[in-house]
Amino acid sequence: MNRLTASNNFLKRSPLWVSQRGVGLIEVLVAVLVLSVGLLGIALVQINSLSSNNSSMTRSQAVVASYTAFELLRAQRADALGLNQTLNASACNASGTAYVVAQLNLWCQNDLAGQLGTSSTAFIQCDANGVCTITITFHTLDCGQTGDGRQDDGLCTQSVSDGRAQQIITKTML
Length: 174
Prior knowledge:
Elements: H1 3-13, H2 15-19, H3 23-75, H4 77-80, E1 84-88, H5 99-116, E2 121-126, E3 131-139, E4 165-173
Helix pairs in contact: 3-5
């Protein structure tokens, strides 16, 4: 008997060989399970990344909106000195007769409500020296009414009271 045949006969009769049947299939199933858990983890990271990206975009829009308001105030510096206004994006009703107030109402409709949603508010305060502070409060919920994304629509359990309100405070000299 040659050596090759002797080793083949040993493997065929060995109880180790018999106990190894099906291990290949189990190993494949475990590998598929590990791979699927890894892919689910990657999907969750991608979802969180998209959510953070959306929140970052909204904060950037709030900063741009505040700079736009500052430019409106700079254009009418004399009227802006001593200004104290709170604007709700749902109403956009700045009070006063000055031209700057009319411009702030348009800013509220276009920038505040149009970009940040109707639940946003802006507080604009300018002192007599021309130092102005704009505080914009907005909400970054990923569910709700079409185009708003800030209200509960029955599919989402988040609401404004969930602590999702964010504030951007910008201060400058006119």
